[in-house]
Protein backbone atom coordinates (compact mmCIF):
# COMPACT_ATOMS: atom_id res chain seq x y z
CA UNK A 1 0.00 0.00 0.00
CA UNK A 2 1.36 3.47 -0.92
CA UNK A 3 0.85 6.67 1.08
CA UNK A 4 1.06 10.33 0.19
CA UNK A 5 0.65 13.86 1.50
CA UNK A 6 -0.42 17.21 0.10
CA UNK A 7 0.24 20.34 2.20
CA UNK A 8 -1.36 23.71 1.61
CA UNK A 9 -2.91 26.84 2.98
CA UNK A 10 -5.85 26.67 0.55
CA UNK A 11 -6.47 30.40 0.93
CA UNK A 12 -9.05 29.75 -0.55
CA UNK A 13 -9.23 26.31 -2.20
CA UNK A 14 -9.52 26.49 -6.00
CA UNK A 15 -9.48 24.05 -8.90
CA UNK A 16 -5.66 24.14 -9.10
CA UNK A 17 -5.60 22.68 -5.58
CA UNK A 18 -8.34 20.24 -6.56
CA UNK A 19 -6.23 19.07 -9.50
CA UNK A 20 -3.20 18.56 -7.23
CA UNK A 21 -5.21 16.57 -4.68
CA UNK A 22 -7.02 14.53 -7.35
CA UNK A 23 -3.70 13.77 -9.05
CA UNK A 24 -2.24 12.64 -5.74
CA UNK A 25 -5.16 10.46 -4.73
CA UNK A 26 -5.08 8.69 -8.08
CA UNK A 27 -1.31 8.13 -7.63
CA UNK A 28 -1.39 6.56 -4.15
CA UNK A 29 -3.64 4.26 -2.15
CA UNK A 30 -3.92 6.50 0.91
CA UNK A 31 -3.71 10.26 0.76
CA UNK A 32 -3.57 12.79 3.61
CA UNK A 33 -4.21 16.47 2.91
CA UNK A 34 -2.85 18.84 5.56
CA UNK A 35 -4.60 22.20 5.72
CA UNK A 36 -2.03 24.47 7.40
CA UNK A 37 -3.49 27.74 8.66
CA UNK A 38 -2.45 30.76 10.72
CA UNK A 39 -4.82 32.80 12.88
CA UNK A 40 -3.97 36.09 11.15
CA UNK A 41 -4.82 34.89 7.63
CA UNK A 42 -7.74 36.61 5.88
CA UNK A 43 -10.10 33.60 5.69
CA UNK A 44 -10.57 31.61 8.94
CA UNK A 45 -8.59 28.36 9.00
CA UNK A 46 -11.50 26.29 10.26
CA UNK A 47 -13.57 27.32 7.27
CA UNK A 48 -10.82 26.34 4.82
CA UNK A 49 -10.42 22.99 6.52
CA UNK A 50 -14.19 22.40 6.25
CA UNK A 51 -14.19 23.39 2.58
CA UNK A 52 -11.42 20.89 1.85
CA UNK A 53 -13.26 18.16 3.75
CA UNK A 54 -16.39 18.86 1.78
CA UNK A 55 -14.56 18.93 -1.55
CA UNK A 56 -13.03 15.51 -1.02
CA UNK A 57 -15.79 13.85 1.00
CA UNK A 58 -16.47 10.33 -0.18
CA UNK A 59 -13.13 10.01 -2.00
CA UNK A 60 -11.31 8.23 0.84
CA UNK A 61 -8.96 11.23 1.26
CA UNK A 62 -8.04 12.14 4.85
CA UNK A 63 -8.13 15.89 5.45
CA UNK A 64 -6.50 17.17 8.65
CA UNK A 65 -6.12 20.63 10.14
CA UNK A 66 -2.75 22.00 11.30
CA UNK A 67 -3.34 25.31 13.06
CA UNK A 68 0.02 25.67 14.80
CA UNK A 69 1.70 29.09 14.38
CA UNK A 70 4.70 27.87 12.35
CA UNK A 71 7.22 29.96 10.39
CA UNK A 72 6.22 30.23 6.75
CA UNK A 73 9.60 30.42 5.07
CA UNK A 74 13.03 28.94 5.89
CA UNK A 75 14.41 32.50 6.18
CA UNK A 76 12.14 33.12 9.18
CA UNK A 77 13.60 30.56 11.59
CA UNK A 78 16.91 28.66 11.87
CA UNK A 79 15.04 25.47 12.88
CA UNK A 80 12.39 25.86 10.18
CA UNK A 81 12.56 22.31 8.81
CA UNK A 82 12.70 20.62 12.20
CA UNK A 83 9.64 22.59 13.35
CA UNK A 84 7.70 21.53 10.24
CA UNK A 85 8.81 17.92 10.57
CA UNK A 86 7.67 17.83 14.22
CA UNK A 87 4.32 19.39 13.35
CA UNK A 88 3.61 17.11 10.37
CA UNK A 89 4.79 13.72 11.67
CA UNK A 90 1.83 13.11 14.03
CA UNK A 91 -0.64 13.94 11.24
CA UNK A 92 0.67 11.78 8.40
CA UNK A 93 1.02 8.01 7.89
CA UNK A 94 4.30 6.27 8.72
CA UNK A 95 6.09 5.54 6.50
CA UNK A 96 5.18 8.30 4.06
CA UNK A 97 6.01 7.38 0.46
CA UNK A 98 5.28 10.55 -1.50
CA UNK A 99 4.93 14.32 -1.07
CA UNK A 100 2.94 16.01 -3.85
CA UNK A 101 3.29 19.73 -4.59
CA UNK A 102 3.60 22.27 -7.37
CA UNK A 103 6.34 24.10 -5.47
CA UNK A 104 10.14 23.79 -5.45
CA UNK A 105 10.09 23.46 -1.66
CA UNK A 106 8.52 20.03 -2.24
CA UNK A 107 11.99 18.53 -2.82
CA UNK A 108 13.27 19.52 0.60
CA UNK A 109 9.96 18.81 2.37
CA UNK A 110 9.90 15.26 0.94
CA UNK A 111 13.51 14.70 1.99
CA UNK A 112 12.83 15.86 5.56
CA UNK A 113 9.86 13.46 5.79
CA UNK A 114 11.80 10.55 4.25
CA UNK A 115 9.53 10.50 1.18
CA UNK A 116 9.91 10.97 -2.59
CA UNK A 117 8.80 14.21 -4.21
CA UNK A 118 6.22 14.14 -6.99
CA UNK A 119 6.11 17.46 -8.79
CA UNK A 120 2.70 18.17 -10.29
CA UNK A 121 2.34 21.52 -12.11
CA UNK A 122 4.95 24.07 -11.09
CA UNK A 123 3.98 26.41 -13.98
CA UNK A 124 0.24 26.23 -13.12
CA UNK A 125 -0.37 25.59 -16.80
CA UNK A 126 -3.33 23.23 -16.34
CA UNK A 127 -5.29 25.42 -13.92
CA UNK A 128 -3.87 28.94 -14.22
CA UNK A 129 -5.09 30.29 -10.89
CA UNK A 130 -3.69 31.11 -7.46
CA UNK A 131 -5.12 31.92 -4.03
CA UNK A 132 -3.77 35.48 -4.26
CA UNK A 133 -5.51 36.08 -7.59
CA UNK A 134 -8.78 34.69 -6.23
CA UNK A 135 -8.63 36.90 -3.13
CA UNK A 136 -7.86 39.96 -5.25
CA UNK A 137 -10.51 39.31 -7.91
CA UNK A 138 -12.81 36.44 -6.99
CA UNK A 139 -15.40 37.18 -9.67
CA UNK A 140 -12.79 37.16 -12.46
CA UNK A 141 -11.70 33.65 -11.40
CA UNK A 142 -15.19 32.32 -10.79
CA UNK A 143 -14.84 29.21 -12.95
CA UNK A 144 -11.86 28.05 -10.92
CA UNK A 145 -13.80 28.02 -7.64
CA UNK A 146 -15.66 25.02 -6.20
CA UNK A 147 -19.33 25.74 -5.26
CA UNK A 148 -18.61 25.92 -1.51
CA UNK A 149 -16.04 28.67 -2.13
CA UNK A 150 -18.24 30.42 -4.69
CA UNK A 151 -20.93 30.79 -2.03
CA UNK A 152 -18.40 32.67 0.15
CA UNK A 153 -17.49 35.18 -2.56
CA UNK A 154 -20.86 35.53 -4.30
CA UNK A 155 -22.21 39.10 -4.45
CA UNK A 156 -25.62 39.27 -2.80
CA UNK A 157 -28.19 41.69 -4.14
CA UNK A 158 -31.41 42.10 -2.22
CA UNK A 159 -34.59 43.30 -3.90
CA UNK A 160 -36.37 45.11 -1.12
CA UNK A 161 -39.50 47.19 -0.64
CA UNK A 162 -43.27 47.29 -0.10
CA UNK A 163 -45.60 44.73 -1.65
CA UNK A 164 -46.77 45.05 -5.23
CA UNK A 165 -43.78 47.08 -6.40
CA UNK A 166 -42.47 44.43 -8.81
CA UNK A 167 -39.81 42.81 -6.60
CA UNK A 168 -40.31 39.19 -7.64
CA UNK A 169 -40.46 39.93 -11.36
CA UNK A 170 -37.43 42.20 -11.09
CA UNK A 171 -35.41 39.57 -9.18
CA UNK A 172 -36.22 36.96 -11.84
CA UNK A 173 -35.50 39.33 -14.74
CA UNK A 174 -32.16 40.32 -13.22
CA UNK A 175 -31.23 36.69 -12.66
CA UNK A 176 -31.95 35.96 -16.29
CA UNK A 177 -30.05 39.02 -17.52
CA UNK A 178 -26.95 38.12 -15.45
CA UNK A 179 -27.22 34.37 -16.20
CA UNK A 180 -27.63 33.62 -12.54
CA UNK A 181 -30.48 32.74 -10.19
CA UNK A 182 -33.00 34.40 -7.89
CA UNK A 183 -33.94 33.32 -4.37
CA UNK A 184 -37.75 33.24 -4.22
CA UNK A 185 -39.70 34.88 -1.41
CA UNK A 186 -40.30 32.12 1.11
CA UNK A 187 -43.17 34.01 2.81
CA UNK A 188 -45.20 33.60 -0.35
CA UNK A 189 -44.62 29.83 -0.38
CA UNK A 190 -45.68 29.54 3.24
CA UNK A 191 -48.65 31.92 3.12
CA UNK A 192 -50.03 30.40 -0.08
CA UNK A 193 -49.92 27.00 1.57
CA UNK A 194 -52.08 28.52 4.38
CA UNK A 195 -54.65 30.03 1.97
CA UNK A 196 -53.40 33.57 2.60
CA UNK A 197 -53.32 33.41 6.43
CA UNK A 198 -50.31 34.56 8.43
CA UNK A 199 -49.83 34.48 12.21
CA UNK A 200 -47.12 35.75 14.53
CA UNK A 201 -45.65 32.23 14.89
CA UNK A 202 -45.11 32.11 11.13
CA UNK A 203 -42.42 34.82 11.27
CA UNK A 204 -39.71 32.43 12.50
CA UNK A 205 -40.65 29.84 9.88
CA UNK A 206 -40.53 32.47 7.15
CA UNK A 207 -37.12 33.71 8.32
CA UNK A 208 -35.73 30.19 8.52
CA UNK A 209 -37.05 29.29 5.08
CA UNK A 210 -35.77 32.51 3.52
CA UNK A 211 -32.29 32.07 5.00
CA UNK A 212 -32.12 28.38 4.05
CA UNK A 213 -33.14 29.08 0.48
CA UNK A 214 -30.61 31.90 0.17
CA UNK A 215 -27.76 29.78 1.54
CA UNK A 216 -28.67 26.82 -0.66
CA UNK A 217 -28.81 28.91 -3.81
CA UNK A 218 -25.63 30.88 -3.06
CA UNK A 219 -23.78 27.78 -4.27
CA UNK A 220 -25.53 27.73 -7.61
CA UNK A 221 -25.29 31.43 -8.45
CA UNK A 222 -23.10 32.82 -11.18
CA UNK A 223 -21.13 35.57 -9.39
CA UNK A 224 -24.24 37.40 -8.18
CA UNK A 225 -27.27 36.12 -6.28
CA UNK A 226 -30.56 38.01 -6.49
CA UNK A 227 -32.62 37.75 -3.32
CA UNK A 228 -36.30 38.52 -3.60
CA UNK A 229 -36.47 40.05 -0.08
CA UNK A 230 -34.25 39.36 2.95
CA UNK A 231 -34.61 38.96 6.70
CA UNK A 232 -34.49 42.69 7.42
CA UNK A 233 -37.72 43.03 5.44
CA UNK A 234 -39.16 40.10 7.44
CA UNK A 235 -38.46 42.05 10.66
CA UNK A 236 -40.27 45.11 9.25
CA UNK A 237 -43.30 42.98 8.26
CA UNK A 238 -43.32 41.36 11.66
CA UNK A 239 -43.37 44.75 13.40
CA UNK A 240 -46.01 46.04 11.05
CA UNK A 241 -48.40 43.13 11.41
CA UNK A 242 -47.69 41.87 14.93
CA UNK A 243 -46.07 44.78 16.78
CA UNK A 244 -42.72 43.15 17.34
CA UNK A 245 -40.28 40.60 15.99
CA UNK A 246 -38.69 37.50 17.58
CA UNK A 247 -35.14 38.31 18.78
CA UNK A 248 -33.64 35.42 16.86
CA UNK A 249 -35.00 36.79 13.59
CA UNK A 250 -33.74 40.34 14.29
CA UNK A 251 -30.32 38.94 15.21
CA UNK A 252 -30.09 36.86 12.06
CA UNK A 253 -31.27 39.85 9.98
CA UNK A 254 -28.39 41.92 11.38
CA UNK A 255 -25.86 39.16 10.78
CA UNK A 256 -26.64 38.75 7.07
CA UNK A 257 -24.93 41.17 4.73
CA UNK A 258 -25.73 42.28 1.19
CA UNK A 259 -23.46 43.99 -1.29
CA UNK A 260 -26.31 45.98 -2.76
CA UNK A 261 -29.99 46.53 -2.00
CA UNK A 262 -32.48 47.60 -4.66
CA UNK A 263 -35.32 49.46 -2.95
CA UNK A 264 -38.47 49.52 -5.10
CA UNK A 265 -40.63 52.65 -4.76
CA UNK A 266 -44.45 52.68 -4.77
CA UNK A 267 -44.95 54.76 -7.94
CA UNK A 268 -46.50 51.79 -9.78
CA UNK A 269 -50.12 50.56 -9.75
CA UNK A 270 -51.29 48.21 -7.00
CA UNK A 271 -51.84 44.62 -8.21
CA UNK A 272 -54.21 42.50 -6.13
CA UNK A 273 -53.39 38.89 -5.26
CA UNK A 274 -53.83 36.41 -2.41
CA UNK A 275 -50.63 37.42 -0.61
CA UNK A 276 -51.23 41.16 -0.22
CA UNK A 277 -51.89 43.08 3.01
CA UNK A 278 -51.41 46.83 2.98
CA UNK A 279 -52.65 48.61 -0.16
CA UNK A 280 -53.33 51.88 1.69
CA UNK A 281 -50.04 51.87 3.61
CA UNK A 282 -47.51 51.36 0.84
CA UNK A 283 -45.97 54.83 1.16
CA UNK A 284 -45.43 54.57 4.91
CA UNK A 285 -44.07 51.09 4.47
CA UNK A 286 -41.63 52.35 1.83
CA UNK A 287 -40.41 55.05 4.22
CA UNK A 288 -39.92 52.52 6.98
CA UNK A 289 -37.91 50.34 4.57
CA UNK A 290 -35.61 53.23 3.71
CA UNK A 291 -35.17 54.17 7.39
CA UNK A 292 -34.22 50.59 8.27
CA UNK A 293 -31.76 50.31 5.38
CA UNK A 294 -30.06 53.47 6.59
CA UNK A 295 -30.07 52.33 10.21
CA UNK A 296 -28.42 49.07 9.13
CA UNK A 297 -25.91 50.95 6.96
CA UNK A 298 -26.92 49.08 3.86
CA UNK A 299 -25.70 50.25 0.46
CA UNK A 300 -28.92 50.81 -1.51
CA UNK A 301 -30.35 52.32 -4.67
CA UNK A 302 -34.00 53.41 -5.01
CA UNK A 303 -35.73 52.21 -8.18
CA UNK A 304 -38.47 54.44 -9.59
CA UNK A 305 -40.39 54.97 -12.81
CA UNK A 306 -41.76 52.45 -15.32
CA UNK A 307 -40.92 48.76 -15.10
CA UNK A 308 -38.38 49.22 -17.88
CA UNK A 309 -36.76 52.22 -16.17
CA UNK A 310 -36.49 50.27 -12.92
CA UNK A 311 -34.94 47.31 -14.69
CA UNK A 312 -32.39 49.50 -16.49
CA UNK A 313 -31.40 51.32 -13.27
CA UNK A 314 -31.07 47.97 -11.51
CA UNK A 315 -28.85 46.56 -14.28
CA UNK A 316 -26.64 49.63 -14.09
CA UNK A 317 -26.29 49.32 -10.31
CA UNK A 318 -25.44 45.60 -10.53
CA UNK A 319 -22.93 46.22 -13.34
CA UNK A 320 -21.23 48.78 -11.11
CA UNK A 321 -21.21 46.30 -8.24
CA UNK A 322 -19.62 43.57 -10.38
CA UNK A 323 -16.96 45.98 -11.59
CA UNK A 324 -15.96 46.83 -8.02
CA UNK A 325 -12.87 45.06 -6.69
CA UNK A 326 -13.32 45.78 -2.96
N1 LIG B 1 8.40 27.98 1.46
C1 LIG B 1 8.89 26.86 1.93
O1 LIG B 1 10.05 26.51 1.72
C2 LIG B 1 8.02 25.95 2.74
C3 LIG B 1 8.50 24.74 3.15
C4 LIG B 1 7.69 23.89 3.90
C5 LIG B 1 6.41 24.28 4.25
N2 LIG B 1 5.97 25.47 3.83
C6 LIG B 1 4.60 25.80 4.23
O2 LIG B 1 3.69 25.06 3.45
C7 LIG B 1 2.40 25.61 3.58
C8 LIG B 1 1.66 25.54 2.26
O3 LIG B 1 2.07 26.62 1.47
P1 LIG B 1 1.59 26.97 0.01
O4 LIG B 1 1.80 28.43 -0.04
O5 LIG B 1 2.31 26.15 -0.98
O6 LIG B 1 0.04 26.57 -0.02
P2 LIG B 1 -1.00 26.79 -1.19
O7 LIG B 1 -2.31 26.59 -0.60
O8 LIG B 1 -0.69 28.03 -1.94
O9 LIG B 1 -0.69 25.58 -2.20
C9 LIG B 1 -0.90 24.25 -1.84
C10 LIG B 1 -0.36 23.36 -2.93
O10 LIG B 1 -1.13 23.56 -4.12
C11 LIG B 1 -0.25 23.85 -5.19
N3 LIG B 1 -0.95 24.72 -6.16
C12 LIG B 1 -1.35 25.98 -5.95
N4 LIG B 1 -1.95 26.46 -7.06
C13 LIG B 1 -1.91 25.47 -7.97
C14 LIG B 1 -2.38 25.37 -9.34
N5 LIG B 1 -2.98 26.38 -9.94
N6 LIG B 1 -2.18 24.21 -9.98
C15 LIG B 1 -1.56 23.17 -9.36
N7 LIG B 1 -1.10 23.20 -8.09
C16 LIG B 1 -1.27 24.35 -7.40
C17 LIG B 1 0.92 24.53 -4.54
O11 LIG B 1 2.07 24.49 -5.37
C18 LIG B 1 1.08 23.69 -3.29
O12 LIG B 1 1.78 22.50 -3.59
C19 LIG B 1 2.61 27.03 4.11
O13 LIG B 1 2.20 27.10 5.46
C20 LIG B 1 4.12 27.20 4.02
O14 LIG B 1 4.63 28.03 5.02
C21 LIG B 1 6.71 26.31 3.09
TrEMBL record:
UniProt gene name: nadR
SUPFAM superfamilies: Nucleotidylyl transferase, P-loop containing nucleoside triphosphate hydrolases
Xref: PANTHER family: NADR_TTD14 AAA DOMAIN-CONTAINING PROTEIN, TRIFUNCTIONAL NAD BIOSYNTHESIS/REGULATOR PROTEIN NADR
Keyword field contains Nucleotide-binding: yes
Name this protein carries in UniProt: Trifunctional NAD biosynthesis/regulator protein NadR
Annotated InterPro entries: Cyt_trans-like (IPR004821), NAD_biosynth-regulator (IPR052735), NAD_NadR (IPR016429), NadR/Ttd14_AAA_dom (IPR038727), P-loop_NTPase (IPR027417), Rossmann-like_a/b/a_fold (IPR014729)
Gene Ontology BP annotations: NAD+ biosynthetic process
Residue sites binding NAD(+) per the record: 14, 69-84, 127-129
Species whose genome carries this gene: Stieleria neptunia
Keywords of the record: Nucleotide-binding
Domain of life of the organism encoding this protein: Bacteria
Ranges of residues in domain NadR/Ttd14 AAA: 156-310
A molecular-function term among this protein's GO annotations: ribosylnicotinamide kinase activity
Keyword set includes Nucleotide-binding: yes
Amino acid sequence: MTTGMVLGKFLPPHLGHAYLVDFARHYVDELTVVVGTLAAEPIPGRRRYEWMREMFAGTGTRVVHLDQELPQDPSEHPEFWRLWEDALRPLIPQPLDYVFASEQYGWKLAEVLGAQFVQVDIDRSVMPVSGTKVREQPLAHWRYLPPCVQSYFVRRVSVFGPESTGKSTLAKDLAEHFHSIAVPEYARTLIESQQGRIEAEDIEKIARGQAASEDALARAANRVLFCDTDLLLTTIWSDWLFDGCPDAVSREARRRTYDLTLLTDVDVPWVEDQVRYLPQDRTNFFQRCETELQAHQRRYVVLRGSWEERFQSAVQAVDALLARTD
